[in-house]
Design brief:
4-stranded antiparallel sheet
């Protein structure tokens, strides 16, 4: 049997859970609901269409002002073995310890003003594979060389070499082991002069300053083993600039920022003085094999606009949406005219 105290506490509990008797909490606020009419819909779609077409035209025109050329050197002919491509040369194990050099000629039909960016482009290379992308140790890349957790299957090396104090691979992991190692030089056939290619300012500043740090002394790298696919130690990646070595080598940093798609390009060099029109010769030290995964290799030379490089997707997207909006507006206008204005607007209702 319920006592007076039970009834009292039950009444207090019910009272505390009851919303206040206000217009807001009891949902009695006045509301306005717009009613979509032909009179308002046609101008709305027309305005959206016109604005999107203007913006899309500006974006598309800006992208088309970018000058770009792609040079495919996947199957360039070897200088040492004239009857063999460098792709075949690299696939032949008898030439495993030999370098392959090739030359590819191309022509720039117009002058490339300002800074020209040189990229390398790979196809069918899946840097986004789960096992590949996880095979690295970020603590090691920040300077703690003994760390190699998560670098399977390239954590340690079985090869022996005098001077090692341990067998930890530095840098460890599949991403570092597959570092792109082709090198290029560019010769102008008109002036018979080599074009200056800058290695600096190609990596993100945030990566250089935060994600990749060298140990206090670069000589510490000598106590560790280099990845099995590397042809030179990490302290000799840039023989012309001692500060551009170790984990803070910009080519290394650019490669370690993995790509999302199997066809990608990465910034490799900068040409600060532009390129004149005319013939050029691309001289390649061909080291990176692509035959195993059926890929292709390109060198891409490109200028940029205020919008970036050549990518017309955004401009085409705006033009498409603008065209559809104008088409819808015209359809509504035609239907309204053919129906004799039957689609009459109604007054907006106040609730």
């Amino acid at each position: 049997m319920a006592t007076e105290d039970d009834e009292y506490w039950e009444s207090q509990h019910k009272k505390s859970n009851r919303p206040d008797d206000t217009a807001f909490k009891q949902q009695r606020l006045r509301a306005w609901k717009p009613l979509i009419t032909v009179k308002s819909t046609i101008p709305l779609f027309a305005i959206v269409g016109v604005v999107f077409l203007i913006v899309g035209g500006v974006l598309y025109g800006s992208v088309n002002s970018v000058k770009e050329i792609q040079v495919d050197y996947t199957h360039c002919m070897s200088v040492q073995e004239p009857n063999m491509t460098c792709a075949e040369f690299r696939s032949n194990f008898s030439f495993a310890n030999k370098a392959c050099h090739c030359r590819v000629n191309f022509t720039l039909p117009v002058r490339y003003p300002g800074t020209v960016f040189m990229y390398y482009k790979l196809t069918n290379f899946f840097q986004n594979h789960r096992q590949y992308i996880k095979s690295r140790n970020n603590e090691q890349l920040r300077g703690d060389l003994d760390q190699n957790e998560g670098c399977d299957p390239i954590k340690t090396a079985n090869i022996t070499r005098t001077g090692f104090t341990n067998n930890v691979v530095v840098p460890c992991g599949l991403v570092a082991n597959s570092l792109f190692n082709d090198s290029f030089s560019l010769l102008s056939l008109k002036s018979n002069m080599n074009i200056s290619l800058s290695r600096r300012n190609i990596a993100w500043a945030s990566d250089q300053n935060t994600k990749f740090r060298n140990p206090t002394d670069l000589s510490e790298f000598a106590d560790y083993k280099q990845p099995p696919n590397w042809q030179k130690p990490i302290t000799e990646l840039d023989p012309n600039d001692t500060e551009n070595n170790g984990f803070q080598n910009e080519d290394f940093i650019v490669w370690m920022r993995t790509a999302a798609l199997p066809t990608f390009r990465k910034l490799h060099r900068r040409i600060t003085e532009g390129l004149e029109s005319g013939g050029y010769e691309l001289i390649v030290d061909y080291n990176f094999p692509t035959s195993a995964f059926g890929g292709q290799k390109f060198v891409v030379l490109s200028t940029i606009s205020w919008l970036g490089g050549r990518n017309s997707f955004l401009g085409i997207a705006y033009l498409t949406v603008g065209s559809i909006s104008l088409a819808v507006a015209l359809c509504f206008l035609a239907l309204n005219s053919l129906s004799g204005g039957v689609w009459r607007p109604r007054r907006n209702e106040t609730l």
